[in-house]
């Protein structure tokens, strides 16, 4: 097990390194750099920008150095916890990000919990009552959830939650709580706003999860050990919980890895639509203005979540399911 | 958005030696200033001096239509944190500012004396104070001129352009505590309008504050320490970063505006508190502003109409588009606001800008052919666009002056705009674009299909709808149109680089000029002109950068623009304007689509003194600025 953990951690760090290089290259791919955008703005304010001044600024920002050197500076900085400087905000990246990071974590974890809570009972029910009306109805709902575009659902829910519950549109809290210290009222406000993005981001994940759980459980329900259990007189409920359901649980855990990136990339778009104070909208704007260190840090953070999610799900699977062996299995 | 070089004004008359001055002094002395209620506590404990000591000895007395009550919080929505600069625009405290009939009147200044159009004597109000209570004097002007504008380290590139005539700076004279004089060797018609602009030219700085960051006043070691603590590269960068009056992002920077920013970015919510030392009082002696605080909430621009419609703003026009009108109207009753329709003064709501400086040689050649541009215009079904997108409320025609302008002529608006596919096809055939591919798309001489990529700033979704309509009708003359949304900065950058073939943007900023407004928008004068950015850049940078104008009609425009600056009388100026408009109508340098689309303005029913029918314009106008938001008030118990 220990060997396995070490191996996994090593691959993870290599993966992260590769991701960092890819991220850096992709951010730099569009023509121009942040400075071109910035000079644009100076010009918009009526300043004449001299080519000498441009060169001066470029050297000040370190943008005149070769890309490999810029990359190296960035990566070594990150290892020491320095994520660089946001050109756009004129502040260190860590100051800019502030609350956003953990608000997006709250959002994403809330979404995952929502997915589990909703998907599990529905999945089990529709498997045990296959082809019943309820199964058909829930399946139909599930497909609707898979098919509805997130942003559309977001707008509709926003509108109705405003009309019927009076919650302000967009954001994660009522405007008067922004930048205020945390209080019970503020928490309530956050909760009142959180459900819309959670439902929106969660729907497609939930629908997918229901389908998988149903299929898995259906497979198990046909197996002989179930028949044996039933023959030996186990009650239906006990039989279900004790044997096939445990088998069907695997996707729940294995999905942590694939659910995380799905939820996170979904949340970027939904957050931008709903203007949530999470990392999503800021990532988008940073990418657009080529504020490379800010965008890079966000992307690295997202990549990190994904890689860690995969790791956690693998380890959990290994711990929970004795059938999975880690060290053997490699055939020469 | 540039300071200075745009002198767009509806009617401002500034003859030689005209004195602009406040009402007589005796009037001011009759009034007893009234303390804003929110300060009574602080004044009684002595934390703040009483109002009579805070306002200038000679305050600006304002005749308010409906004198109001104190209190309330004015909520607004903005798309980006950077937009807190709009508080400088809306606050509209200027040295001189436009009144609602677009005449320049002194505001922060007590008076301005102008002689020969080149000597400007500015007189401050005695006892005027910054928002931190320190005196606002001519020292603040000196600091700007000597230590900032002409300071070698802070501005190695010289003073702002509106302060240069033929590249020469003025002579700056400090006469006494309240009087300064700027003398140019030639008339400078751009100076006062630059001071009154929506994004104004600041020719003063809070010297007492800024000196803390200037190497001339602080020991080098101490300054380096400060720069390091602020994580700035050097003191110059530090000075620059705390000094942005227009950006409004430094809560410590003293101001003269009615509301002071109290929130340090980054944030999603910015609170602006009233300035206790503001210089304007109403006719009853109440110190303005009436409203105690303004709050700007940042939300994605796309959500702003929805938020406004649910009553989350007390006054809002920014990020609202005409197509939101019906939705907003529906929210009126439920949320207690009214949607007004204000006039917009742009020459066109939307215009196409073929890039005459495109770097692709084939395209550049074709775009520079006037017949090609005419054919493009004639294959646009403007009637359809108006009916489909603007409920038929717009004006179909070119990007030119509006009928409200005395310079208007119907032929400027209608030439080459009739929807006539036959004629357009004939024009395109005439210029040799006769080859077509198997789908009927015309081919460039080098064999590429004529696919015109129209780039947009991606801010206005109406543009996408209109371009979609356009694509259908252009297809019928054998041209393919693709829309490419980018961002404003990216679009500008690409256009200047020549990568953009065509872009879509607003039309002329000022659609209702008189002969006294500068016609520079019609000539290559700025690199933000999408039809000829490189020529504009050449002019703007004073002969460096960009490219020289190498097209006769455009050269003529540049010449006429230069003539206007030195023109002697109204007749000569009118003639210049007319010729320039004529050239534009004939050459179709920009292809206007639709004009005169009203701007929805959402105003809370409790908010008083907001005009029902106003003009929503950037400069002159500063959006709400000339209607003076400091006189708005909430009629709520």
Describe the overall structure.
The complex is a heterodimer of chains A (332) and B (637). With 332 residues, chain A is mainly α. Chain A is built from 15 helices and two strands. Chain A has a two-stranded antiparallel ribbon. The radius of gyration of chain A is 25 Å and the shape is globular. With 637 residues, chain B is an alpha+beta fold. Chain B folds into two domains: 221 residues, Dipeptide-binding Protein, domain 1 (Alpha-Beta Complex), CATH 3.90.76; 246 residues, Dipeptide-binding Protein, domain 3, CATH 3.10.105.10. The longest helix of chain B is centred in the last third of the chain and has 18 residues. The chains are: A mainly alpha (332), B alpha+beta (637). Chains A and B meet through helix 2, helix 3, strand 2, helix 8 and helix 13 of A and strand 13 and helix 18 of B.
How would the blueprint of this fold be written?
The complex is a heterodimer of chains A (332) and B (637).
Chain A: H1 2-28, H2 34-44, H3 51-61, H4 67-79, E1 85-86, E2 91-92, H5 93-97, H6 99-128, H7 133-147, H8 150-165, H9 184-221, H10 224-231, H11 236-242, H12 244-248, H13 250-274, H14 279-288, H15 292-320
Antiparallel strand pairs in A: 1-2
Helix pairs in contact in A: 1-15, 6-7, 6-9, 6-13, 7-9, 8-9, 8-13, 9-13, 13-14, 13-15, 14-15
Chain B: E1 19-21, H1 25-30, H2 40-45, H3 51-54, E2 60-62, E3 73-78, H4 86-91, E4 96-98, E5 104-106, E6 109-115, E7 119-124, H5 138-149, E8 171-176, E9 179-183, H6 191-195, H7 207-210, H8 220-229, H9 235-242, E10 259-261, E11 269-274, E12 280-282, E13 293-298, H10 304-309, E14 315-316, H11 325-335, E15 337-344, E16 350-354, H12 361-367, H13 370-378, H14 382-390, E17 395-396, H15 410-414, H16 421-430, E18 451-456, H17 461-475, E19 480-485, H18 488-497, E20 502-505, H19 533-540, H20 552-566, H21 570-587, E21 591-595, E22 599-604, E23 607-608, E24 615-616, E25 633-634
Parallel strand pairs in B: 2-12, 3-13, 15-24, 18-19, 18-20
Antiparallel strand pairs in B: 1-6, 4-5, 6-7, 7-9, 8-9, 10-11, 11-13, 14-22, 15-22, 16-20, 16-21, 17-21, 23-25
Helix pairs in contact in B: 13-16, 20-21
